[in-house]
Each structure stands twice: as structure tokens, then as C-alpha cells.
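On clarity, I found the account of how folds are encoded harder to follow than it need be. For illustration, here is how one protein appears when written out as sequence plus C-alpha cells:

:::
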Amino acid sequence: MSAKPTLHITVGLPGVGKTTLARELERTRGALRLTPDEWLLPLLGVRWTYFGDKRDVLEGRLIWVAHQVLRAGGSVVLDFGFWSREERYAMHAIADLAGADFALHHVTLPEDERRRRATERWRRAPHETFAMTPEDHERFRAMFTPPDAEELEGRPPPPPPAPYESWPAWAADRWPTLPRLDA
């Protein structure tokens, strides 16, 4: 077991078991679990949103909290989905900045099973999720870029895209409530 704190991120589409894994990491690793879906209603008055300003506002603040916890020596699980490589690269860089290890947990299922589980979750606990149409599932799949072999091996992220001089700068632009952590 590492003496350094670890930033764990769960990566995958709705219904694959990210939150189940995040809860297990919370329990077995003693990590703080931050799942935006559990914060939306109490803080922002919405039961569920996958996209948009409110979710981005919340995620930015949760990433800031995660960075503070990592700097204080605690481990964190960010249970967001992280559908883009850029988001995952930014989290890797933020873990490095905090002096923490980084662990990417890619969760996947065959597509028919994923959809079945997402639908079952809606039927079983509609207060925790939202109904997804076949069009939603297709749109989400089109937006998701699975981690490649280099990401899964834990290699350092490549340089950020222009005009950003660092991944934390990119992250501060992506999540409007996340302050520039390397400034």
C-alpha cells in the first residue's frame, strides 16, 4: 500500500457500475467519495443532470475539495464518469500537483447489459437516476472516449492542447468553479 494519498477516478458510461466501485474504494481504501449525483438536489435543486452549467459548477468545486483533501494526505474517489481523455489527463495532473498517486478505474460492460442495468436502476431507484431513451444512450456512447492503453498503464499525460500551458489551466477553463490550482 502506498504511503501517498491516491486520487481514484471512475471512468465509464451510465449503468456500468461506477458508483458501486466508488463505494467499494471508499470502504476498502478509506477514501473520500465524491459522487456529483448525490449532491445535485441538496445543493442545486435539480435531481439529475448529465450535462450543463449546474453539473459543471458542482464538479469544479468537488475537484477543488478533492485537491485539498489530497494535499492534506487523504485519498479521494471522484465518481464522475470522465468521458474525455482531456478530463482524465487533467485529473492525473491535478493528482501530481497535490503529490498524490493517480488511479484510473475504467468500468465497462457489454452495451446491452449496460442499458439493461441503467433501465433497472431507474425502475428500482428513480430518485437516484433518470430515465434514458435509446437516443440518450446513443448520444452518450458517441460522446465517450474510452481510455487507451497508455492511460490504463498510468503513463503521464501528454502536454495540454494550445493555448493552455498546463492541464490545471485547461481544467480551470473546463470547470468554471475550479480555481487555477497551479497558479
